[in-house]
Design brief:
By secondary structure, the chain is α+β, with helices and mostly antiparallel strands. The protein is built from 6 helices and 13 strands. The strands form 3 sheets. Strands 7-6-3-4-5-11 form a 6-stranded mixed beta sheet. Strands 8-9-2-1-10 form a 5-stranded antiparallel beta sheet, with helices on both faces. The protein binds zinc ion.
Amino acid sequence: MTEQVAKYMAQNARIFCVSLSDSVVRSGELNEVSGEPLSILGKLEAFACCIAALQKNERASVIVHLSLAGVGSYSATADRDGIVRGRPEEGTSSEDTLEVTLQLPIRGNYTGVVTGHGLDDLVATYFSQSLQIASACRVFESNGAFFCIVAEQLPGVSCDLEGLCAAASESLPQGEIPVGFEFLESMPFRFGCTCSRAALMRFVDSLSEADRADLAEDGRIITYCNACGKKYTFEL
Ligand SMILES: [Zn+2]
């Protein structure tokens, strides 16, 4: 039921439902976050997976940065092939912002930024500005799982997208498929990252002697992956 994106048809709309739990727990453990910050991170990771699932290119990646004024900043990365990670970031901006970068092979990167009030509003604004068709969306937490649900209009007869999104949000977290929904397919997501000790080692090796000395403490350099937060320690 969780760690996946499930796709449905209902009326003349396509519905995507991302549900995550274990992968968010893993992010929480790696970055030592819990409570409300973990809830925000979980919803952001579900949103990133949803944007990734909407991409046609199987090698696409999505990086999202969220800053909530006076609350905190977070990032999440989702790969179209089903891998997700996220972490809290330093600092906050003076207004709530959501930055979404699509990394598309050959075509390059596309970044969109929206401002608003709170995560729900930012996500709704992003979808309405970035999808070229009408849509409705929800991001929420239910019983320790994190959801992002999007209903997008298909060409032709227009339908009640808000109603479909509400029905999906009510039933799918309970494991029930709403009346009138047809299941199409699902795709798994799991926690993971492309970082490696070798890549971080190359970074440390690229530093000048002086920079290395600056960063070193007790004869070792401690660095963290900026996508998943994993800690790497290098003895000098
Ligand atoms: Zn990593």
